[in-house]
Amino acid sequence: MAAYRLTFLLSGLCMGAWAPLVPYARSRAGVDDGALGLLLLCLGLGSLVMMPLAGILNARKGCRFTMHVGIALVLLTLPMLATTHSFAGLMFALTVFGAGCGSVDVTMNVQGVMVERATGRSLMSGFHGLFSLGTIVSAAGMTALLWLGATPLLASSVVLTALVAFVLTAGRHMLGRSGDEGSPIFVRPTRKVLLLGVLCLFAFLAEGAILDWSAVFLSEVRGVQHSIAGLGYAAFAVMMALGRLSGDRILLKLGSRTVLIGGGLIVMLGFLMVVLATDWLWNLVGFAVIGAGLANIAPVYLSLAGAQRTMPGELAIAAATSLGYLGILMGPAVIGLFAHATNLSAALLAVASLMIAVMVSATRLVPKVSRQRVH
């Protein structure tokens, strides 16, 4: 079980490592919001290409092989993201880095479903809590090292060391093939699963906005030093981790509908605090509020995808997850282009408005008295 939990923790380390590096990469390349958005689009495109390939690799080669492929891509490109000055070099590095993160993200969720089914226990919410914990350790740890004077390369080397240690130890005990012999590799998603995937995309887009733009917002809009600008994402990730680690109890007490509606309202409140409060310390509080509201929205949608009967649950979860992660990987690029046309504050408010769809759809997707089994 330790290997399965570490899979989610290490996935969080990969994702969180990029957030503190964004202001440094932007300064080295000398790019504006629009150009940074194009760079982030490369991150999403790399993941978009790799996610379906990761599904095939999981079915044919197993989770262990696919996870190691994803980690190898991260190991290759994270040092480049910490040192490259050219725009073209960053485009290449972010594309391959996105492919690695996409492979890791799909694989951790596929293995999470496999472990749940093997044990007969609801574990996914806690697994995702460990993913959030990994982003905290990575973002906060690298931010602390940068604040103490470490170079971006030295700070990122700590994450690289942890990834190598995982591959050489617990990574060898991951599960093998994710499917039975003769099982279909792909099934066309149904309308309901596609809707759940789009709603996951909205939730993950808000998460991606914080991942890629919180440090930029604090440094460029509020004038915070680059070395501590990663605190915004760290505050967000702390509250998201706490919310997910307690997600099973919250859903049992309040129900899925209340979590979706209440979470959407809390997320919108957090974005308003970030945009309207001029003191950067209050901005940190706003980022934390966003994390609390977002924490269990995506897990509810994944639970609904697994519970529907219009297509196999495991394939439905994989489809919803793949579509949802496009939000966290491609959404920030769209935010950059929107910010270039208007400003970053307006772009963040546009992201907050997506929570209206989350709240409105909750009444149709979730029965009023539902107490969903949480994934």
UniProtKB/TrEMBL annotation:
Domain Major facilitator superfamily (MFS) profile: 193-375
GO terms for MF: transmembrane transporter activity
Main location: membrane
Lyase in keyword set: no
Keywords: Membrane, Transmembrane, Transmembrane helix
Transmembrane segments: 37-58, 65-82, 88-106, 127-147, 153-172, 193-216, 228-247, 259-278, 284-304, 316-338, 344-366
InterPro entries: MFS, MFS_dom, MFS_trans_sf, MFS_Transporter
Subcellular location: Membrane
Regions annotated as coiled coil: none
Membrane topology: Multi-pass membrane protein
Record's GO cellular component terms: membrane
Entry protein name: MFS transporter
Naturally occurring in which organism (per UniProt): Pseudomonas frederiksbergensis
